[in-house]
Amino acid sequence: MTEAAYDYDLFVIGAGSGGVRASRIAAGYGARVAVAEEYRVGGTCVIRGCVPKKLLVYGSHFAEELQDAANYGWTVEKMTFDWPTLRDAVAKDVDRLNAAYTNTLNSNKVEHFLERATITGPNSVKLASGREITARYILVAVGAWPVMPHFDGAEHCITSNEVFGLENLPGRVVIAGAGYIALEFAGIFNALGSHVTVVNRSETILRGYDASLRDRLLQITMARGIEYKFNCGIERVERLENGCLNVHMKGQPDPLGADAVLVATGRRPKTDGLGLENAGIELGEHGEIRVDDTAQTSCPSIFAVGDVTNRVQLTPIAIREGHAFADRVFGGKDTRVAYDCIPSAVFSQPPLASVGLTEAQAREMLGSNVKVFTSDFRPMKNIFAHRHERGLYKLVVDAQTDKVLGVHLIGPEAPEVLQAAAIAVKAGLTKADFDATVALHPSMAEELVLMR
């Protein structure tokens, strides 16, 4: 089939961050592009992920700010919180973003179908309405979906998808899992006044982050009232006649009472029912689409980007992968995505952020040729607040080259501080470069250049 014989040059399945970016860039190169999205334009991050969740984080911070205000001379009376007001404000902003992403497609002359599409062959898809469409290339960018384990009463639980629509603020929340989604929502509900219990199968929180930050976060959140139950999982959830839930856990004699059970035990690529087998596309052990470094699948005309590939489940990576795909296929540029030095953050309370190698990873690679510099300090803001929570900044350095291999921070505004530090690590700067930089005083960020 000739190029002109196809309905489109590119058909994208999924209008999330990666799919929208790929569509826009490809259309900018003159390609005829269409996108199918079965729910709302914007994807996980915009509709039911990092953006609405960050807005909840901001909303929950006011509990702490208002409590601290008196120590700064403010009189705040009749402090009350109304969950529906915050919930509805977040939903309204999601509507705004959905419209903005839709306008992006329209302004770039990308046709979009608000219905599910499945693959029927190497160059064809079928819409839920029954329409058959052909395309020279197909890009799969459907993202990932929360995993719900199999146990009795799982239907009484919610995932991060449903948490934004809760009718009322639950007084008691049990959260299964101890990854970034679990701990971010634990911090939100704890700050808003809910009693939070985190249940985890292992004794490790935030696997993959530096141990010093994990330990500090555990200490602080426990002091704030979050309870943890380690080395146990949920066995069953029972709904009582009054609507409350009893959470039965393995190895625990007594159930936990809860008003909501949030399961945050991971996300799985959303490949079920996509018709990938019709094009001979190979999947990995977790259902992810296997791709090479050009995002090409085992079918030469079909590509995949973002969380559906399970390489790095981060929105900025999906965007870069989508952009690079369009550059290569339609722009004649051999653009590749670098997966080293990716900064990441957990918007827990307090937040933490990291880039590069952890201390454990560096020692595994370099043995004793590792230097570690730390600053353990009390943020100035906490002094008037009468909180004894301490921030911790950490540099991991190659002892032979003096190159900074990793930066790890926990404390107020840690993610904002880390972004600039990530540039330094990506650029290969040395500890001497950090030392030679004049401190910005008074700030928490100055601790990065004062470690000796």
Describe the structure.
The chain has 452 residues and is α/β, with parallel strands linked by helices. The chain has helices at 17-28, 43-48, 50-69, 83-107, 180-192, 211-223, 315-331, 359-366, 380-385, 414-426, 431-436, and strands spanning 8-13, 33-36, 111-113, 117-121, 124-127, 132-140, 144-146, 172-176, 195-199, 227-229, 234-239, 245-249, 256-258, 260-263, 267-269, 302-304, 344-346, 352-356, 370-377, 391-398, 404-410. Strands 1, 2, 3, 4, 5, 6 and 16 form a 7-stranded mixed beta sheet that branches. A hairpin with a 6-residue loop joins strand 12 and strand 13 (256-258). The model has no long low-confidence stretch (mean pLDDT 95).
Specify the biggest β-sheet: 7 strands, mixed
Structural class: alpha/beta
How widely separated are the two ends?
Answer: 66 Å
Number of strands: 21
Q: Determine the mean pLDDT.
A: 95
Low-confidence stretches: none
Question: How large is the radius of gyration?
Answer: 24 Å
Helix content: 25-40%
**Count of DSSP H/I helices:** 11
Give the overall silhouette.
Answer: globular
Proportion of strand residues? 15-25%
Summarize the topology.
Layout: E1 8-13, H1 17-28, E2 33-36, H2 43-48, H3 50-69, H4 83-107, E3 111-113, E4 117-121, E5 124-127, E6 132-140, E7 144-146, E8 172-176, H5 180-192, E9 195-199, H6 211-223, E10 227-229, E11 234-239, E12 245-249, E13 256-258, E14 260-263, E15 267-269, E16 302-304, H7 315-331, E17 344-346, E18 352-356, H8 359-366, E19 370-377, H9 380-385, E20 391-398, E21 404-410, H10 414-426, H11 431-436
Parallel strand pairs: 1-2, 1-6, 2-3, 6-16, 8-9, 8-14, 9-10
Antiparallel strand pairs: 4-5, 5-6, 7-15, 11-12, 12-13, 17-18, 18-21, 19-20, 20-21
